[in-house]
Amino acid sequence: MDSMTFVLFGATGDLAKRKIFPALYNLYLDHKLPESFSVIALGRKPYSNDEFQTHVEEALKTFSRRFIDDHVQVADFIKTIRYHILDATNVEGYQGLLELVQQREKEFNLPENRLFYLSVGPEFFDVITLNIKESGLANTKGWKRLIIEKPFGHDLQSAQDLNEKLSKAFDENEVYRIDHYLGKPMVQNIEALEFANPILQTLWNNEYIANVQITASETVGVEERARYYDTSGAIRDMVQNHMLQMLMVTAMHLPKRISAKDIRYEKRKIMESLRLLEKGEVGLQVIRGQYAAGEIKGEAVIGYKEEPGIEETSTNDTFVAARLWIDDSFWSGVPFYIRTGKRMKEKSTRIIIEFKNPLKDLFLNQNHNEETAPNLFIIEIGPNTGVSLQLNSKNLVNEGKVEPVRVEFSADQKEVPEAYELLIFDALRGDSTYFAHWREVELSWRWVQPLLEAFEENSIPLHSYPSGSMGPDASHQLLEEDGFVWWD
Ligand code: BG6
Hints:
- It contains 15 helices and 17 strands.
- By secondary structure, it is an alpha/beta fold.
- The strands form three sheets. Strands 16-15-14-13-7-12-11-8-17 form a nine-stranded mixed β-sheet, sandwiched between helices.
- 6-O-phosphono-beta-D-glucopyranose (BG6) binds at residues 218, 237, 349, 382.
- Residues 7-189 form the Glucose-6-phosphate dehydrogenase NAD-binding domain.
- Substrate binds at residues 180, 184, 218, 237, 342, 347.
């Protein structure tokens, strides 16, 4: 891996503390950082270098999935970090930053490979990128890359504007748009499950699959993010990015090779075939909800409108379910259902593939008139990670009744790397497979846009659901219309 400088904007923020530094530290423990590596940590807070390094050490102790209490070793990792105070909106300060980067490059004998990581609010994405360009930081003899966090735009137009601005400083192949769901090991595993198993590959189409269900349910509420969340809602916070990315990964066709170019091409093709909704039809295919008071795991919780910072009149969506159609020869006729929400019964992200069940009546006589259950292929993405297949089998101790059984595989949680470790490692080595290409983002916004407008105009119902449930009844009815149920 190339030696490089890692320039982190927003280094004193929450994401840096919880995810980015712990990820770098775990890569360090696994010897996955480049031989020579310099981190320039940028923020506005008046830390001295020593103070900042102590702050990072504390963050590692609290948030890293592994922490080896060996001061020498931690110090060895931390000494790669240099804190620098910068007002990122003011181009003048960038001269000092450039000098620091160059000084460290000299000191560590680094080639001018520079990775800029924008872990800052979206309002700063364009100004920072512009300042990187204007200041000459981007004029390197080596390579340059930009990692950018979500949200990428607030709607289709703002996403296009942002991309236009970024492209003045970075080419598409230099931009690494983070969607942390793409970093989840089980999301990355979907391609192997589908393409490395001929039995599944053969069945992965509309001849055998009845429907696909993608659920990301959370038990947390709005937390301390009222300002952001109330203008974003589940639609922007989860659907436009994570849910549609999981849909793309599940539905993509066999790529020519397992490479960033081919995989992203296949994902893009899915998005190009995704049927767009007219604003007037949104209510038929999409359910939106907002949590009311309720109980989660025995604890009473307040409703969304009672949350601090939320107006009583808020019509923000904390739940979205939708039925999507991919109009291509593989998927035509197969509904893809997605649902995501806050304050639901459990924290769980999973994808369930329900297979068609043409012989469901065959055992009616032996089974007290009960149909046999469909085969399900279940991909548990988090917090549990694993795969299971629901088959039917005679219960050998219950009069041979044909019943569903699960064949399961699960991974040991502690050993599974975090999404940020995988993503940062890929960005360090220049592999963009699990980052969102601009066209994926743009096409996702294109699909979401009429929903945003219908929500904005309140032209579809906003269903209330009790905290601790699996969302509004209307979301169950959506599947019942097609003769299906959500598999919980
Ligand atoms: C983030 C959203 O992108 O994903 C949060 O902004 C959400 O609102 C989170 O809670 C869920 O991620 P995970 O990894 O916990 O499923």
